[in-house]
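In this section we walk through a basic example: taking a raw amino acid sequence and producing a predicted 3D structure, encoded as discrete structure tokens. The instruction is simple. Fold the sequence below.
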Amino acid sequence: MRLLDRYLLRELLLPLGYCLCGFLILMVFGDLFAELGEFQKKKLNAGDLLEYYFFLLGTPNFLGLVLPVALLLALLYSLTNHSRHHEITAIRAAGVSLWRLALPYLLVGVVLSLALFAVNELWAPRSTEQAERILNRRVQPQEPQADPGLLPASGLANAREGRTWLAGDYNRKTSQMNNPQVIWTLPDGSQRWLFASRAVRTNGVWTFFDVSECRASATNSLLAPSLQTNVLAMPEFKETPEQILSEINISKGMSLRARNKADIPLVQILDYLRLHPQPPDSIRPRLYTKLHGRLASPWTCLVVVLIAIPFGVASGRRNVFAGVASSIVICLVYFVLQMVGLALGTGDYVTPWLAAWFPNLSFGIAGLWMTATVR
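The resulting token sequence is shown next.
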């Protein structure tokens, strides 16, 4: 790494750290004051609150919102200072192009985008559940509580292989179903109905216990008993626990139009689409908008770098406050456009990929064009 790159990164990372910590502290205190009554009701102490916010900071409502804004502010502040002290002019006079000067900033944008993507997909799905567990750890239940891993009245529709699963309940920790029913259609048009007291997936194979099976021919819908046994292994059933969870979570999210802090992870959306290559029209726009939205949103960090560079290097005659004001306006416009795009995609007014990617593409191209026109 060249000495110039190390200098530019040092001058960027320090204000970035200040901005990021400052915004996160503000958001934590804002949420703390808003939820103080609830925390007192739950009898949480200071240690519980620290642990609670440790998990909550990784959710999109905290880090996903704060990181791009902090990066934009820090980059504009850093570039404005360089420009005011004529450092940008001196660097370019030494034969360094503006694009080469911007390289360390672009790398920071890419690294932070990838880090934000990893946080959204690996940390955030678990953080909300952990935060909820901490929130209720000191509450004494009035009556025995059900196993939190137990999901009642669960089901799975495998449109790709034509199988429908129903269960009285499903334990996501042990991958066990109670009172499962599996219905599927054979190539000759006949149907098989499998009933059991429970089913467990071990070593990649579903095993059913206390099994009774019925069949219905293609011409007669009456069920006729065909098999009864204590144990039955079905290696041809390829449905995985992850796919069952994706079906449950997405069906719940789509029906309630839930917008929780962790949202639906990308891997669950992809698992659902493997089971349903042609999802129902009622959820297709929302599902694909969520898919593209989760892919597009982390790249906000790279987009704000592309926007900040031309604003920062051209601000030599402006003070730092002008750069900060510009960043706030840019940030507001970008996030408004992002929310409007996702709303239009969810409502099926705009193609989902365009709804999710248009803010990034438009602001990114605008940033590249403005950088190319800087003299």
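Looking at the output, two observations stand out. The CA atoms of residues 18 and 74 lie 8 Å apart. Residues 256-262 have pLDDT under 50 and may be disordered. In the next section we compare this with other chains.
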